[in-house]
Structure formats: C-alpha cells, structure tokens
Design goal:
alpha+beta, Ubiquitin-like (UB roll), Creatine Kinase, Chain A, domain 2, Four Helix Bundle (Hemerythrin (Met), subunit A), 3 domains, 24 helices, 50% helix, binds adenosine-5'-diphosphate, binds magnesium ion
C-alpha cells in the first residue's frame, strides 16, 4: 500500500473507469445525465450496468446493492448476488440496466412518519448517477434515493438533491444579472469529523456504551482534558496504525481523507476530508463513519461517534464547511478582484446572512438530536442560539455600506460601483473565532453545530433551501429593477440593516451573549430537541420549504414525527439502561463491598481493634445504596409516565422535563459510590481506564 495515487479510488466506478470501459457514445450520454440531469435511456443504462458488473466481478464482487440513506440516519443495504442460472445447470453473472436504475426494497420497516399510511405502502430506490458506485467488501454499492411510490421521499438524499437544485436555480438567476457565465451552481462541503477511540476489551464491559453509545455512569478521573496536552499532541503508535489503515480504506473508496489530529479530550481525534459536491460529501461522510468503526474493530478498538460519550470532557461534533461555486470553479463566497466581482460576492454573502437570520430555527432543527443536546451550549460547542461570525474586516465593510460612510481599512482604497460606493477589500480576511455557530472563514462558511453522528444531509438541506429563498427574493426584485446598480446597492444595504442582529463577533460561549441574543436581539434559543423540532411545522418554514419543492407538507410532517420519535426512543432506551445497570450491576457491587467492610469491622471488633473507618464507610455506602435504589425506582416511575404520553410532541416535553432530571439524579449517587468502592469490586471499567486505555 505504498503508492497512493495508484490505489486511490480503486474501488470506485469513477470517471476514469467509465471512460475506459464505456463506449464513447454511452460515456457522453451518461456524462450528460451526471452533469446536467438529462434523462438516461434504457440502452445506456444496460451498457453501464454491464460495464459495472464486469468491473466489479473482476475485483471480486459477487453481490450488488442499492445503497441508501433512510431516515434512521444510517445507511441501508440489501444485497443481491449477480448469479443467474444458465441452461447447463451452472450460473452466469448478470446485471441489467433495470436492476441498476431501480430497486424495490421492502420499505415497511423503515421509519416513514405516517407517510405510508397516507401513501403507497411500497418504496423504491432510484440510482443517483451523480454519486459514483463503489465496492465495499464483496458488494457493488449503487448510491440511490429512496422514495415511496407516490414519489414522497423516504430518505435524506432526495431532499438534499432537491435543495441543491433549488439553490442552483436561484443562483443562476442572480449570476445572469451580473453577466457571469455559468451552466450550474453547486454547493460544496468539507465535513470535519470528530470521534473517540477506546479499547475493545474495556468497551465490551460497559453495557451503557453497548446499548446507548455513551457512558451513563462514571466519576471523573483525576485527570481529564485540563492540561490541554492532547489537542494536536503526538499521535500514539496504536492510534497512528489505526489512522493509517483508515486512510487507506477511505482512499480506495475515493474519499479525500486529508487531515488527522488529536482533539481536545483524551482519546478524541478528528478526520477532515477535502471538500467536494454536497451530495457526494454526504455519501462519503456516511461511509467514513462506517469505515471508522470497521477499521477500529480490526485494531481491537471501538470508535465512538456519539456526541457525548463522556460527561466532563468535550464531546464530538462535526464542522460543515460550506460554499457555493459555479461549474467553472468560481467560488461565489470568495471576494473578487474587481468591484463588480465584489458586488456579486457581497450579494451572495448577504443571501447567506439573510438566510441564517430568517431560518435560524431550521438550522437549529437540522442538528437537533438527543446526543447533541448534551453539547450545544455546554461551553464546548456553540450555544443553541444561532449567530454568525464575519470577522473584523467584513464587518467594517458591511458597516460602511449600512451607514453610507467611506470604508477605510488599513491601506486599502475604496472603489466605485456605479452611483454608489461598494468597497474593495482583501481576500484573506480570515480571523478565527471558534465559538461561533456559523463562521465565515475567508471563502466558505463553517457551520459548527452538527453532532458527530448526524448525517450532514439535514443541515445542508436547510442551509441550501434557506439560501435559495434569499436568492429568490433578490432575483425577483433585481430582475424588475430599472437601475440594476442602485437596486443592488439598496438591497445589500437593506439586508445589512434588517439582519445585522444575527451577526455576532464576540464569545459565543459567554452567558452574557445568550442574554443579549434573546432579550435584546430577539434571536431564538431552542435549547433542546423537543423545543426545536416542532418549529419545523411553523407556517413560514413550511411555506419556504414547499415553495422550493424541497419537501412536500406531508414529508415535513413525517420528518417532524420521525425526529421526535427518534429523540424519545433514544432517551427512553438510556433511561431503561440506567435503571437496569444501577439495579443489576452497581447496587450489587456496592452491597458486596459493604459486606466486606462490615465483616472487617466485626472481625476487628472481635479482637478489640478500633473500627471507626469501617463503620463510617459502611454507613456512607449504605446511604448511597438507598439513594441509588430510590433513584432507580423514581426513574422507573417516570419511564412509565412518559410511555402514557398523548402524542409524540408531549412525550418529548415530558422527557425533557421529567426523565432527564431523574437520570441525573440517579447518576449522582452511583458516581459517588464508584469513588468509594474498591476497584476490584466495581462492575465495569472507569473513565480513567477508558480515556487513557489506548496505549
Ligand atoms: P479548521 O480545523 O481550521 O476548521 P480544516 O482544514 O480542518 O480547518 O477543515 C477545513 C475544511 O474546509 C476542509 O474539509 C476543507 O476541504 C474545507 N473547505 C475548504 N474550502 C472549502 C470550500 N470552498 N467549500 C467547502 N469546504 C471547503
Ligand atoms: Mg473547523
């Protein structure tokens, strides 16, 4: 595995393979479908399928699958082999264009949020030719969209593709007004992925990690992340071996794994790929998460992707670096050389500002999960309040436009655009702010609220749609304007005036900011998932998403229900796991150790030795055992109450108000007991063991 360029993408049916294995007629026709969304005819599909099968079987594949992303948030696949009986009693390997284009998995076990009751029960998968097919293990995986027969999306990819199309359509209208040549505009994403690695033999002894992906108990070890000695620290050999193999596997799949480093918490790491088109970045991120876990197993490690595997140290997130570019490669979020280019840049920048302000709740909703609720606003990740960071220079530019004052920054001169002044400024305006939920970083925005296990599809669906809406409002007005330049200037100015409340360049982790944001600026603070999700049904949100044909109203309702259901199920599973572990593992351990202490106390007393320490400890253990038992009983009662909720929205509220509190109440005496009970009596590995166990 030395020559990376040689094996990079070796498991992908990419452009190179297509060129070499398809006739030029078939290749051209497929290319047209990929680039411009042209319809694919059956003869072309058959030729592509035959070439794909030849290629895949040469590489040892025996099966194919339509690979899709149902609303469970993970990927799904059902494998069919290529075999087809031949008259002589043997088999041939067969794969038709029909099988390539369309599949019919049994959709009934995937969440549909009531869609199936309203619509056709069956679902089908449809090939997404814009994302390359690839081989995983012995299976040819064909990226697909998953829909009901009524055409309702049952997956995350369909609305993502629709949102990209919505943005493309509106962005092209704007570019036309500027006279900028473009066939299409796409959005690109580079997602930075955080994760933890823990030793497999220790993981296997932690039922909480096994059932829920996070620790439900655990006292802080003497050392956490306070020394700041892990971030960018030297990578341990065992972790390095893991990263090396992970990169190889990702590269074979054509995934542009680029950057790797240790993160803030012990045992925490990050991987970032080079950015690519959003739907491909989404497929790649799903694959990356899967391969991270597979490769870990080969190294006797477990990769934790939960947002908060350990209390008291940082959890894991995902940074969604996002920009828009034309087919000619012009980044629309990159300040240009000429005043005209800069005016265009400013308009796209304003479109994002307006989008983030107008649809702050949709962005918040797009990252809302039970796991992520532990991070947002906990001084390790942005707060639940959405705001934007632009940096000093851009801020000064916007202020100058708003106040009609000349822009003076460093030695740069101002330039004229028609009647009004639009300033020229530097390309490289990247100051850094790590606490902002949505930060401009020179030529892209970094949306930092995503949880580590989230599919990046949801965040990008909302972002693309909201920006498409801003662009539509702009295009509607500018297309009618008599004087383009004046109208443009006025609109940029109006956007700044109307939406500057969303811009905040200070410390997003500061409590004073939350007060200012909510009380003075009127920004929304949707603290938890049950607070956030129901707002997807707000009239304005439904209007916007349906008007761009990203979702139908029924799809929005179904997603609202599925997301809340997912939240409720996750927390109830955690609550049940807590109660059972407390009763079946922790209490017996406490009692056993207590019995040992009591025995010791009696023995000492019998021979006339002082037993004050034993008595004190036994008493303390006895009190803790009582609290644990009471806490578990209360939690059980709360679980029962929650299960009687009238509907999913009220169940969410009950969990937020009742269950979570009781879970913390039960955890407290358990963690105290851990610090008192001798190590050999404690039923599972501690935080110290897990966080510092990879050596
Ligand atoms: P940092 O840790 O400073 O945020 P990284 O280098 O780890 O930066 O990650 C930056 C990510 O942004 C990478 O995935 C990179 O490919 C991506 N990126 C760079 N330019 C763009 C762009 N124009 N559009 C989208 N993503 C981009
Ligand atoms: Mg980052």
């Amino acid at each position: 595995m030395n020559n990376v360029p040689e094996y990079f993408g070796s498991m992908v049916f990419d452009d190179r393979v297509m060129k070499s294995r398809l006739s030029s007629k078939v290749y051209q026709s497929l290319k047209k479908t990929i680039d411009e969304g042209a319809r694919l005819d059956q003869a072309v599909a058959n030729a592509v399928a035959a070439a794909m099968k030849e290629w895949a079987t040469e590489k040892g594949a025996t099966h194919y699958t339509h690979w899709f992303q149902p609303l469970t948030g993970i990927t799904a696949e059902k494998h069919d082999s290529f075999i087809s009986p031949s008259p002589d009693g043997g088999v041939i390997m067969d794969f038709s264009g029909k099988e390539l284009i369309k599949g019919e998995p049994d959709a009934s076990s995937f969440p549909s949020g009531g869609l199936r009751a309203t619509f056709e029960a069956r679902g089908y998968t449809a090939w997404d030719p814009t994302s390359y097919a690839f081989i995983k293990g012995k299976t040819l995986c064909i990226p697909t969209a998953f829909c009901s027969y009524g055409g309702e999306a049952l997956d995350k990819k369909t609305p993502l593709l629709r949102s990209m199309e919505a943005l493309n359509k509106q962005a092209l209208r704007i570019l036309k007004l500027f006279g900028t040549e473009a066939k299409y505009v796409h959005t690109s994403v580079g997602p930075e992925q955080e994760y933890f690695l823990v030793p497999k033999e220790l993981y296997d002894k932690r039922p909480d990690l096994i059932y829920t992906g996070r620790t439900l108990f655990g006292a802080m070890p003497p050392k956490g992340q306070e020394m700041d000695d892990h971030y960018f620290g030297v990578i341990k050999p065992r972790v390095e071996a893991y990263m090396t193999e992970l990169n190889e596997e990702l590269w074979k799949l054509g995934i542009l794994a680029k950057t790797q480093h240790n993160e803030v918490a012990p045992a925490q790491h990050e991987l970032a790929p080079i950015y690519t088109t959003t739907n491909i970045a989404t497929d790649h991120n799903q694959l990356t998460m899967e391969i991270m876990q597979k490769v870990a197993a080969r190294h006797s490690l477990v990769c934790l992707l939960h947002e908060k595997p350990f209390a008291g140290v940082n959890g894991s997130g995902k940074h969604n670096n996002w920009s828009m570019a034309t087919d000619a490669g012009v980044n629309l979020l990159s300040p240009g050389e000429t005043p005209y280019e800069n005016a265009q840049f400013l308009l796209f920048l304003c479109a994002v500002i307006k989008a983030v302000d107008d649809y702050q709740d949709l962005l918040r909703i797009s990252v809302a999960t039970a796991g992520n609720d532990h991070r947002l606003g906990a001084n390790e990740a942005p707060p639940a309040v959405v705001s934007m960071f632009l940096g000093d220079e851009l801020n000064a530019v916007l202020e100058a436009i708003e106040n009609d004052t000349p822009y003076e920054y460093a030695e740069k001169t101002q330039m004229k655009l028609g009647v009004d002044v639009l300033p020229k400024f530097n390309r490289d305006t990247t100051d850094r702010n790590r606490t902002s939920p949505f930060a401009f970083t020179g030529n892209k925005f970094e949306f930092r609220m995503l949880g580590s296990s989230n599919s990046i599809a949801c965040a990008n669906i909302m972002l693309n749609s909201a920006v498409a809406e801003s662009l539509k409002v702009y295009a509607d007005r500018l297309e009618k304007a008599e004087d383009f330049e004046t109208a443009l200037h006025d609109m940029i100015r109006k956007t700044i005036k109307d939406h500057k409340r969303i811009i905040f360049n200070g410390n997003g982790y500061d409590d004073a900011w939350i007060k200012e944001a909510t009380e003075e600026r009127g920004l929304s603070n949707l603290r938890t998932t049950p607070d956030a999700i129901p707002h997807i049904l707000d009239e304005e949100n439904v209007r916007m998403l349906t008007s761009h044909k990203v979702f139908s109203e029924a799809e929005i309702r179904s997603r609202c229900e599925i997301t809340l259901e997912n939240y409720c199920k996750s927390v109830v599973i955690e609550a049940n796991a807590m109660s059972q572990i407390a009763k079946k593992e922790i209490l017996p351990a406490v009692l056993e150790y207590e019995a040992f202490i009591v025995d010791t106390a009696n023995n000492k007393k019998a021979i006339g030795i002082d037993n004050l320490y034993e008595k004190k400890t036994a008493k303390r253990l006895s009190e803790l055992a009582q609290s644990i038992s009471d806490g578990a009983d209360e939690l059980d009662r709360a679980i029962d109450t929650v299960s009687g909720a009238a509907d999913i929205i009220s169940e969410g509220y009950m969990i937020r108000d009742e269950l979570l509190e009781r879970m913390s109440a039960l955890r407290e005496p358990c963690d105290k007991a851990e610090l008192l009970v001798a190590k050999k009596y404690w039923p599972f590995p501690t935080y110290g063991d897990l966080l510092f166990g990879v050596r």
